[in-house]
């Protein structure tokens, strides 16, 4: 068995596609009417479809999982984030863990938690 994709729920799918392209360079592979598959295996699904499948409300900022990205030039990434999305909601601004890794955590426009860290090597 192989993990194929990770799906996140979004309110405005085109806005989210642009967000993940702007910050992480993810490109659109397939647009299937409320489901978008991006490069690196990230799938965006329209909130209305997800609610219909689940029959439950979506809970943004639930902090139960995160998307993790690595970036060598984290300073440049932080500058890009602040320039393109100045009103982004941070969990923590750029910090350095005791083991030396620099990380930043924030929510995407739909409350999905994202962490960007320097490579652990």
TrEMBL record:
Q: Give the protein's recorded name.
A: Glyoxalase
The chain positions of domain VOC read 2-119
**What organism is the protein native to?**
Schaedlerella arabinosiphila
Give a Pfam family name: Glyoxalase_2
